Amino acid sequence: MAQGKYCNREKINTLEQLQSLLSDTNGKQYYKEMEDLDVDTELLANTIQKTLKQKSRIKTWLEICAHCGMCAESCFLYLANDNDPEQVPSYKIQSTLGEIVKKKGQVSTEFLIKCMDTAWSKCTCCNRCGQYCPLGIDMGIMFGYLRGLLFNQGFVPWEMKIGSGMHRIFRAQMDVTTEDWVDTCEWMADEYSEDWPGLEIPVDKENADILYTVNAREPKHYPEDLAEAAILFHIAGENWTVPSEGWEETSLAMFAGDWEACKLQVESVYDAMKRLNPKRMVVTECGHAYRATVIEGPYWAGLKSGQTPIPSFHYVEWVAEALRTGKLKIDPAKKIKEPVTYQDSCNYIRNAGLADCAREIMSYIAEDFREMTPNREHNFCCGGGGGFNGMGRYRKQRNAGLKVKRDQILATGCKLVISPCHNCWDAIRDLEEVYEIGIRWSFLKPLLIDMVIVPDHLKPQDEEDE
Fold first, then answer.
1. How far apart are CA 464 and CA 466, in angstroms?
2. Is residue 457 included in any domain, yes or no?
3. 398 and 383 in contact (C-beta within 8 Å)?
4. By CB distance 3.0 to 4.6 Å, which of 92, 241, 374, 420 could disulfide with 285?
5. pLDDT of residue 270
6. Alpha-carbon gap, residue 42 to 49, rounded angstroms
7. Residue 317 DSSP label
8. Whole-angstrom Cα distance, residue 335 to residue 386?
9. How many domains does the chain have?
10. Pair 226, 339 in one domain
11. Per-residue exposure over 393-426, b if at least 16 CB sit within 10 Å of its own CB, e if not
């Protein structure tokens, strides 16, 4: 069976393999080789037979879909592409996964490339369509299954294969080693200690109240986010720590459909929980990290309880609690005065039900909070989820999809968008770059630091003396 140097069915398990794939700039040779990549039809047929059981929900959903089209307007990509019938969720899944199942895996290379382009550029797995289907069919879940089939066959976007390889090698979506991570923690604590006396970022502290875990992009590209988290824990008087290993919450492997790597990734976090014995875990401002580790992760790890080894919370839950209990107190004079709106992340709002936490936070920090329409669990995907933000092959489609979020924000009249999720933050940043509508966007941490009341004993000495 023809397999290329870059595009093949091999998993990225070594640094040498990863560096080789990275050397193919923008995946140019990778996609060229994909055109000649043979389909292992026997493997595909066997995989379907083993995983798509007679009574499985995916098989049932494929069979009971009434082709009514009621899911159409639930999809932001359908709306953003002028109601293109080929963007109707039921059509997208029936014309890809449905055909693979119907033909028992006897499909061509050309067809699987079409499936890849559909699975990664026409669906972000936001799961919104499942709310509007009269039969409860969730195309997002089925597209996740399709992505897994395609990954095993080698038909996966170049960036996604790289991302899954990063998780296999570094247990992080980026090449951040344990040493890099610990050094960054020490660097940030030292960098901000003059302004925040006694500030620490404790590493591997046992029996802490909070185990804090992050998105690898924070230590890699904006370590100040880690410092901001430390400052807020410091002000709140929390007993917290970060693990030296198992600190990364995200899962590009989930976006790629590499379920084996998903298991490896999430188990590294669970091992840190068991090793350090904290009371609970708090996940940084990232939606898919929360979904991967807290919602999906227990099942990947084979935990029959369906729960993480210790209670686990998204950052908005901790912030809402800290404001409610007075651990963080807002200076009324420093509350946000201008109109401000909030981006409801698919992964911790729709898929985890944390909309009330978000509104509670806004009631403390904003004087003119304006909802997007629709909002809460009905909000549209930011336009960048499911890996959409990071794939060059589909940048044109991603940019078109941003129009729905653009129009939602414009309708609020707000120039400031709070977005406690990395993918949402990136999508809204890129939205402004593409459409220039004059908005700003922010995580919660920097906003909170600007408005919290700092106890006198935590202020620098010269400030206390003023």
1. 6
2. no
3. yes
4. 420
5. 98
6. 11
7. H
8. 33
9. 3
10. no
11. bbeebbbbbbbbbbbbbeebebebbbbbbbbbbb
Per DSSP, the residues of 117-185 read: HHHHHS------HHHH-TT---HHHHHHHHHHHHHHHT-S-HHHHHHHHHHHHHSSSS---HHHHHHHH
In angstroms, the CA 147 to CA 160 distance is 11
DSSP string, 33-45: HHTTPPP-HHHHH
The predicted-structure confidence for 254-292, as pLDDT tens digits, reads as follows 999 999 999 999 999 999 999 999 999 999 999 999 999
Q: How far is CA 419 from the centre of its chain?
A: 13
Quick one: 222 and 300 in the same domain? yes
- Residue given tokens 């708090």 in the structure block: 282
Any residues with CB less than 8 A from the CB of 250 and at least 6 apart, and which? 172, 173, 215, 216, 217, 286, 288, 289, 292, 422
Which parts of 207-355 are beta strand (E)? 210-213, 240-241, 280-283, 312-314, 340-342
Dig out the tokens for 23 from the structure.
């050397």
What whole-number distance in Å separates Cα of residue 131 and Cα of residue 138?
8
Contact 387, 395 (CB under 8 A): no
Rounded CA gap, 209 and 205, in Å?
10
Q: Which domain holds residue 265?
A: 171-324
Q: Which residue has the tokens 């992009």?
A: 217
Report the chain's C-alpha Rg in angstroms: 23
Nearest to 265 by CA among 282, 248, 277: 248
